[in-house]
């Protein structure tokens, strides 16, 4: 009883502190998805389990509904590591990404990282997530920034493998609360992604995690496919308009001679180094990244 009362009390404190509450909550086969208002109702958050999986400003300082193009937020906030990786891939592609695959839709914030004339395709396993992202009364990012974009329903690894053509950039943001979808990080999976890349393309992995340091896992799988990898963390201050920014840890794999990796190394990204045997469809070792995280061993 004491634990229950304490937990409920802390939850109420967080709701009151954020200036909002639950707008909508819906359960799917995969999780309970909560659309929560925050910052006196000026923002909507998509919460999955214990993790925020997207955020968007919906009202201005005067409380009026926003009609301008939404800003990327949460992991994808302006000037963060996600945006740095996308910008490096865009530079390598000559200033324009012809085709981009995004695995993991969330509330659609990444759509607003697109530029006019680019074709972004989203792959999502959970139909409830698709419904929430496509509802402009909850989130406007998808409908405003990539109107009419294709959304492919199904497991991202399988549906991407079946997709026609190649992509200049493949982005993975397919995490369930703070757990790791192992089958998306194996050497065989990365080999599949490589087969869908253009010659100058890159694969971005959102490896943000409270419990594991996954940079070495990506580096090991990338190395098995003849790719190089770099990674970087950021820790936004979370003040002013950056209040919707979340800390992120991002890795990107590409050809070792790719201008993507050269550009990001010059901007302070760290070389990814494999640590032990790479994860495969038959083998994964989650203890190693847990220990690396606990010891602060980021390579």
What does it look like?
The protein is built from 9 helices and 12 strands. The strands form 2 sheets. The protein has an 8-stranded mixed β-sheet with strand order 7-6-5-8-9-11-10-12, with helices on both faces. The chain is globular, with a radius of gyration of 19 Å. The longest helix has 17 residues, at 2-18. With 299 residues, the protein is of the alpha/beta class. Mean pLDDT is 88; it is low at 4-19.
What is the structure about, briefly put?
By secondary structure, this protein is of the alpha/beta class. The protein has helices at 2-18, 81-92, 127-133, 141-145, 156-162, 187-195, 215-224, 259-266, 287-295, and strands at 22-27, 32-38, 43-48, 51-57, 99-103, 119-124, 151-153, 167-172, 197-206, 228-234, 248-254, 270-271.
Key structural traits:
single chain, 299 residues, alpha/beta, 8-stranded mixed beta sheet, 4-stranded antiparallel beta sheet, 9 helices, 12 strands
Cα radius of gyration in angstroms: 19 Å
**Helical element count?**
9
Sheet-strand content, in percent, reads 15-25%
Shape: globular
Q: Structural class of the secondary structure composition?
A: alpha/beta
**Count of individual beta strands:** 12
Question: Largest sheet, order of strands side by side?
Answer: 7-6-5-8-9-11-10-12
Can you give the helix content as a percent range?
A: 25-40%
The end-to-end span amounts to: 44 Å
Mean of pLDDT? 88
- Major sheet size, sense and barrel closure: 8 strands, mixed
Helix-strand string: HEEEEHEEHHEHEHEHEEHEH
Low-pLDDT windows of residues? 4-19
